Amino acid sequence: PYGKTCTNCSRVKYKCIYRTNGDGCERCYRLKKQCHPSTSIRKRKNPPHTKTSELEDRVESLASIVRSQGQVLHLQDGKSSDQPHTGPVHLHTPNSNTGSGSHIIGTETLISTDEQIIVSDNRISLPITSYVSCYNIQDATAEAQLHIFRQFFIPVFPFVYIPAKTSASTLRLQKPFLWLVIMSLTTKSTAQQLAMGESIRTTMADSVARGSEKSLDVLLGIICYLGWFHYHKKDDFFLSMWTQIAISMTFSLGLHKSAPEPREENDEGQFSSALIGYPPQKHVSAFRTIEERRTVLAAWIMASTVWISIRKVQPPRWTIYLESCLQILGEEKESEHDDLLITQVKCHLIMGQITYPIVDPEISPQSRPPYFIKAILLQLKELKHNLPPQLSTNITAHLHIHSTEILAREASIHRPAQPLPATPNLSRLESLNALMASISQWLSVFDTIPTAARIGTSLQIAAQFSHCAVLGFRLCTLVEPGWDTEYAKQRINVLDVLDESARAFDELHALHGLVDDAKNGSGLVFKAPRLIRAMRANFA
Asked: What GO terms are given for molecular function (predicted)?
């Protein structure tokens, strides 16, 4: 029988068969050996893995990490370490830098034990509030920065509505991550802006990527970061990555679709999570708020902007639900800027018709037939005709409309045949003139932006400016039968436009009292004039 082999048979790995009279086994009897049964050493099965044991393992992992890094738990009221502790816990690393309050890593952070500390891959993932707590910005300074954001940033990209009665301290409590991104954009110190930018990326890596933190606050902070991405990172890889994170979080929060229908009381399956209690269920609202609808539209705009700019991240498919969000936002507006957001969405929908249908990457977007371009221009004409009265003089709205027209005009121009024909192509010259007129209109509107307001220049407008500068330079240097480059330079003098933009940024830091950090790197406002003049040197 299994587990009762004698020692002799076990040693030679022979099948052990006991005799019927119980006097040893057949082999030992035949060989006239003393038969001794071996000791049974049967492995036991591991106990079943439970949620309790998993939590105990995580607690032990956390304790081992704290001990290995030499971290000390400071207890209040002189309590000994073997007594239960319910107050806040101070985590302090030996290499902390207490000389500056502008960095998160290496500083002493106050963490409430009521907050969730996530341990994953033997690393600690702290709640977002712990990353924000080290920035002790005075209330008056925070209020001034929030005012700048309301005055110069939101009117350019109204992705969020912050009521006038909402103070900076209240916003910090309600939406800490969004507060951190706003403060990083509006701070006057380049050194603090760089430190906050690093804190934002650390928060994303620790709490979002590793800790699976997802909330409307985090999504709004990501959209805000993307909306003025040129203030922080300028690499296309990071821009694509942050856009993908925003899209993923939109789907994780379920904002891309209607709110789920309420369940019936007895509508629970045998293995329903509501019955077995795992995974833990969060309360899901039975309806979508205006803030949620505005947020999903803003995330879609940023995905479309990145796609049009670098052609690497295609936005999610436009659905009936997104169309309903657009309609409801127009009917139940909370902010005076909601009409501008709606106009931006409509412009991106028109631009999407030019760029999205391309399946073969070898086919250039500049291969659109005339009837297609005519249909696009008719949609744009209808959009301008139905523009709300309050947007009739809105600079941002007209910049987006003219930028959409530029993209359509550009798509109507086919590449010239090689070698160039001896006679002018009148149809092509007409398209070139129409494109030149659209660029001239965009630059004229851009020139009306007050110098102080250029601090809020969004990623969308910055991309449009670069696009117009490149197209304008090509038109001014185009060699083609019948094309007058001197006339093009009179209509759109790109060099003068770049000179004026550099001068405006030179004045901008003085108007807002910005302070540069020459040691760790210059901020956007200080680098912009140098970059624009470098572009001009390449064009000259």
From this structure: DNA-binding transcription factor activity, RNA polymerase II-specific; transcription cis-regulatory region binding; zinc ion binding
